[in-house]
Specification:
This protein is an alpha/beta fold. Helices cover about 35% and strands about 15% of the residues.
């Protein structure tokens, strides 16, 4: 654990996490743990970051510390095992079998630390016919049925960036998994391996839809349902200036308010009459096309019509509600989402900017009691210059 004198900076204060450097969902999960107060040490590779962006701007490495270890060097695995011996959680995102070949697999680490929770982040999982195959977010969400629900009928599915697979189906499930396993380890003294596969998490996200499908309340095709853009009062519409408004007027009272503000009260009966949905969509689209996005935003402001402007990434931090809640924050010149969720007794914050590779080697060696991190000539990386 970290020293008793260390200030509290979140509910996971005192939890030690080793992150073996990777890209995508692994680093994001580790960032979430770091945001919640864990002391996350990222083990970077000597050949630099894999993401290809300036490490100083990689927000997923905020609130962490970094050491550089060459796992292919003779003493590389021993260095990582020294950290694992003192950690509560280790997170890695290699293909199945790679960590074992490098000498830092679950058996190696847990032989040194039986209480360790070993989190494995992959797309396909640790077993199955595709376990050894390469892949990316879009392929993982494709086979789960999630991608097939996006977009308009008659057109290709729309890729939702890598938010649905990598981060929702991957990172968040890994974070929940390792924290649940940590609870078990502290109760029993025994750690375990957490197999977080993006295909598993993404499939799990569709649980409600599968229930609706079984109940006959969901059609297994794109753009034909209440929540997939098939419903004219749950979707997006273009405005006269090329912007868009998002509509979610599902409940009758919200729908009534929506029609009142659009001056389309004669369409009240179309709410539950799917045969009138094409007419409703056409007339709503015509109304939205008659004014700018800002004009519609002003009109719907302060109402329960459940209508909001579709903002860009650069616009979002300036939305009045998000600004009032400080949903975004500025740190070291980078505007970024603030840590979430929020805690009344153990508030979180962005404590440090993105960890620079190797910048914290000496500090981690001292704080964690692993002098071998800096004592070998084969690992000359010391604290980097600011």
């Amino acid at each position: 654990m970290t020293e008793a004198t260390a200030p509290d900076h979140g509910p996971l204060t005192g939890v030690r996490v080793v992150e073996l450097a990777g890209i995508g969902p692994g680093p994001f999960a580790a960032m979430l743990l770091a945001d919640l107060g864990a002391d996350v040490v990222r083990v970077d590779r000597p050949d630099g970051p894999g993401l290809g962006i300036d490490p100083a701007r990689d927000v997923t490495n905020r609130n962490k510390r970094s050491v550089v270890v060459d796992l292919k060097a003779p003493d590389g695995p021993c260095r990582v095992l020294g950290l694992a011996e003192r950690a509560d959680i280790l997170v890695e995102g290699y293909r199945p079998g790679v960590a074992e070949r490098l000498g830092v697999g679950p058996e190696d680490c847990r032989a040194r630390n039986p209480r360790l929770v070993y989190g494995r982040m992959t797309g396909w999982g640790q077993d199955g016919p595709l376990a050894d195959r390469a892949g990316h977010d879009i392929g993982y969400i494709a086979v789960t049925g999630a991608l097939g629900m996006t977009g308009e009928p008659g057109r290709p599915p729309v890729a939702p960036a890598n938010l649905l697979g990598d981060y929702a189906g991957g990172s968040l499930y890994l974070a929940v998994g390792v924290l649940a396993a940590l609870h078990h380890a502290r109760a029993t003294g025994t750690g375990q391996v957490v197999d977080a596969a993006i295909v598993d998490g993404t499939a799990h996200l569709t649980s409600m839809i599968h229930g609706m499908l079984a109940a006959g309340a969901w059609q297994d095709r794109r753009g034909a349902n209440l929540l997939d853009g098939g419903c004219p009062y749950y979707g997006t519409y273009e405005t006269s200036d090329g912007g868009h408004m998002a509509v979610g007027a599902l409940e009758p009272r919200f729908y009534a308010e929506f029609l009142r503000l659009l001056d389309l009260d004669d369409l009240a009966g179309a709410h539950g009459d799917v045969t009138r949905w094409p007419e409703l969509r056409t007339r709503v689209a015509e109304r939205f096309a008659s004014r700018t996005r800002d004009a519609w935003t002003t009109l719907f402001e302060g109402t329960d019509a459940c209508v909001a402007p579709v903002l860009s990434l650069r616009e979002a931090p300036h939305h009045p509600h998000l600004a009032a809640r400080a949903t975004f924050t500025d740190h070291a010149g980078i505007t970024q989402p603030a840590p979430a969720p929020r805690f009344s007794a153990t508030p979180t914050t962005v404590r440090t900017g993105p960890a620079r590779p190797g910048a914290d080697t000496e500090d981690v060696a001292r704080d964690w009691g692993v002098p071998g991190l800096v004592s070998s000539p084969s690992n000359p990386q010391r604290k980097a210059s600011p």
